[in-house]
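Recall the central idea of this unit: under ordinary conditions, the amino acid sequence of a chain determines the structure it adopts. In this exercise we apply that idea directly, starting from the sequence alone.
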Amino acid sequence: MNLNLSIPCKAFPKPNELEEGFVDEPLVPLSGDFVVKPFYYQMGIEGALDECYVRETVKEKLLEAQAYLPEGLKFAVMDGYRPLAVQEYLWNKERRKLQRIYGSCTEELLDEMTSKYVSKPSYDINNPSVHNTGGAVDLTLITDNGYYLDMGTQFDDFSTSAWTDEFEDTVLFPEVRNNRRILYNAMTQAGFTNLPTEWWHFDYGDKFWAYYTGKPQLYKGLLVL
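Accordingly, the structure predicted from this sequence is:
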């Protein structure tokens, strides 16, 4: 398959426009089939897991996507299912940072700004943040000898440089553009959708995936592992 297809520009999803149609499916670990580097556990965030878990079908789709990669490349997974404690930590950290920057803005505006970068934690299993469903996965490309490909930014970069199609309209950094294309096209060919503001973030069965595909959301939130 052609993994050098250009990355299309897409709008940020509006999950409130979704229909519901849930399925029950277990979480499964990714170690053994993928390189697993649990980013938030390695950061020492309380409640973070030392393994990356996704729904069973999501793992099958990841294996399919990895099989599309050129010889010598594979996935390194940084995050999958995310406990609510970790989501709350990330939300509060970003919210405090924005509060320091913007000072006396309203609570509503502060929440709105924060939600552009981090999903608000939700205890409503019918309307969860995507990483709380087991359908979202954060990953990058790594060589068989452990070399990480240049993707243009670090994981969890909130600048516009992290937007998936950021390097499509420039002759600069062709290696970054091509690496992002490989990741994007392998994942979308396997049925995932991409969050356009994060080159590393892909979804299957959650509300972002449902928004982009027009299909019913498959997975509810999981309050505990």
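Residues 119 and 129 are 6 Å apart (CA to CA).
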